[in-house]
Amino acid sequence: MPAEKKPMRYAHPDGYTGVCYCESGRFIVTAGSDGDVRIWESLDDDDPKSINMGEKVYSVALKNGMLVTTVSNNIVQVHSFPEGTPDGILTRFTAEANHVVFNNSGTQVAAGSSDFMVKIIDISDNSQQKTFRGHSGPVLSVAFDPENASSSCDGSVFVWKIADQTRVINWLLLNKHNDVSLTSSICRLDWQPKTGMLLAIPVDQTVKLYERETWQNSFDLSDNSITKPINIVSWSPCGRYLAAGSADGSMVVWNVTTKECVERLQHEKAFKISAMAWHPKGGKIAYTDCEGNLGLLEDILVDSGNKKPTSSAAPSFDELFDEDDNDLLTKDAQDHVNLSQSSPTRQPLMDDDEDDGDSVALIEDQTDDGDQAVSVPTVPEPVRYLGPVPTPQQKPFQPCSTPSHLMHRFMMWNSVGIIRCYNDVQDNAIDVEFHDTSVHHAMHLSNVLNHTMADLSQEAVLLACEKSDELPSTLQCIHFSSTDANKEWMMVMPKGENIQAVCLGKGWAAVSTDAQIIRIFSIGGVQKEIFSLAGPVVSMTGHGQQLLVSHHRGIGFDGDQCLGIQLMEFGKSKQILQGVALPITRKSYLTWQGFSAEGTPAFSDSEGTVQMMNRALGNTWVPVCNIRDHCKGKSDHYWIIGIHENPQQLRCIPCKGSRFPPTLPRPAVAILPFKLPYCQIDSEKGQMEEHFWRSVLFHKHFDYLEASGYEIDEAAKGQALKEQQELLMKMFALSCKLEREFRCEELSAFMTQNVLSLAIKYASRSKRLNLAQRLSYVAQEKAAELMNVQEVEEDLRAGMSAGYSNFFVMSAATFSTSAGSHARNANILDNMSKVSKKSTGIGNQSTNKPGSLVLKPLAPKRKAKQVLKPIKLSLKFMFSFSCWIIIAHHLMARNCKIQFVIKLYVFRKRPKTGYQLWLEDNRSAILTDNPDLEEQEIIKEGMNRFRVLTSEERMEPYLCKFSSIDLYLRELMKFLDKHGKQMQKHTSLYSLQNEGNL
User: Fold this and answer.
1) CA separation for the pair 124, 459 (Å, rounded)
2) 44, 410, 642, 875: most buried by Cβ count inside 10 Å?
3) Judgement on whether residues 171 and 215 belong to the same structural domain of the protein
4) pLDDT digits 0-9 by tens, 636-656
């Protein structure tokens, strides 16, 4: 049965594209001219993991969890697999490194370069290198196991002895060229696995096989379908079959024992085959072409086992071995099959045992010489559940920065400016550029300490480097907004402590170290607070007085990260989020975190989901955008640099075929819209609901900023409210049209008084009188609620300006107790302001100080001839009603007869007259009756209506009177039922003040 050829798919831009399998066969790894390495779970994987290696990748090799690549800056580098974390540079050449391979054990790599040299590097210690010189042209290919062989553009193939770095033999087989780009074939030669008995070398349209030790040409393999030079050869894991790919797109598989072609396929567009890789268990071949496409051949040689002769060859096999030996052979072969099908975690351990591997391979070769007399049956391995697979923890990163292993990279790109780092042979420097040159001029800094982390604000530039063998981890701050002559300060971390993340805020800087400690500094260099994290830091950002830190909460499983988030406000000295779980998408990792320009926390993950915090809903996270929906290609991404809530903008840099943008040419910024993932978003109802709640979410920052004491744009806030009310009316009209009256009533709960009046009119004109009546009840309830929170008349607020330190002012504050009681202050409520605000409890008040008042619980005692005098209190009320009841009880505990009037006050920035307050509440009613009136006419009409009102009608909405002692007693009894225990303890006035404060 012929092999099945899967349709090819785009993997990289046109150019050389390498491919290999991981040792378990679970992942396909490709590398291309875009500088990325992509990890595919299958050919149908629509979102492969992409790791940027550099500007261009020439070769890739994978073994033992180490991913080695050769890139365009003449280096051979290693990354962890599958995380893609940089693990260092193995070696450098003076020209491009064209090919790299692992040895059998994965302890060494061999690389060939265009500077005519071949190097062998020890993975564990890259200082242990061996250099092989002898080629007179660029080295095209290296094969490394068990002998090192290389081919070059000078037309020669060399076999080297690694121990003494001597040349064993060389063949002049290839055409001579002085440049790799001019060669007709890259001549990817390959050794036979395990034994290395044969070396396969592609020469024009044939494959020459040379025997080990004798180095004689044993035989050649060719096929009539191949019309152009063969580009690559690759042995199957068992060593019996050899695959080849040519420049005309032909792919051929030979049985080396019989020298027959067993598979013959053709590229669908006849493109040159760049690379081929067998699945570790055989039966599949992944291949790539020169246009960057990835393909897969499946079911290769599936019937080869059935075609093996058994009866005719059995006698010859029995002549060599007796029956007992035959049983022993079958057992050994069966053990080999079980080992080859073992779990991926155990297989490398078996590969390291070279003696066992050679002996098994020798038996297989002898079996091949006997025409494959014995067919080893495959026994399915029993399924074993190994438990959930732990997910490797994500490494720390700086938001809005590209990976530190890049030679030219962005260290920071935010709303203030851009920090670039250049680290090449000529220069190692940092450039700081400001979007607004009035903030500061551009700076060019020498990167002497090899800084890898940075942040930028309106006040300073913050740089940090990791520790090295010579230098400790150091923090450097350039405070350019300072008036000092020396604007730079540095801070060296304690011995053994390494900086992993840095950020800047308004007047402060923060660093997080591998000791799970966060250190806070003032912008001038003063050390301030330090505190510990609950896990290793992942990222850290600052905005104003807010600090956002993400960290690991534990070990994730099955591809999920277990992250926590911590949000602090230094200005208020409180923690908003205390290490709660960060809701990133499943099987993803954190790619960006930060704040919007208005100060709302947000983050994004590798699946493209952007989420923002909703402060009004218990600090929950809301997905507001999926940037993957805006990517044109499957390998395209957007690199986030900022978020704006007003206007609603997600500022990103498009990255074609990669996750990170290049520094040159300067990338352009794109703006993406936000979209909440509501249901039925294609319908009119779903679109309006999404638009309304998105508007509500993205304008909550007005409330936060106003509560924090910042000035807000009242016009923008009013425009947002107008937009929301218009959407409510549209949804209301749509619900009326669909005869959903209950839905209309639900929508009315979000409407203002004016819009609710319009909704009532719309319902009446739509002949929905029952709905209009129910909405009128809703309007009355809203009006009653508004009346309960409005201010009193100007004459009741006249005494407020006397001082805000007193929470209560008494108009006639004298009372008498028993004759034996000591004299007290005439105004006991004034004494409350004398208690230090820094006191935190009753225990802090136990020490008497001059001029201070110590409040103690009073136990009622029987007094002879007590004289009860009435007290009339006029209280400016700033506490809850329950707190006022407690204060009244304390007065009654002192045997005072109380007659009282409570007046509720709400402070305003600017006092208004009674008429102004009345007009604000009744303006909508005037406009409803006379929609064509102008502003002056509205004032006149309102004045006419206000004059006809009685004084009680004018005061009623703003003044609550409790003149009946019966009403007081009823309210007191209700409160005592709820707070009886507290009343029995005679809680002090000071603690009551703090409890009742609104």
Assistant:
1) 44
2) 410
3) yes
4) 899 999 999 999 999 999 998
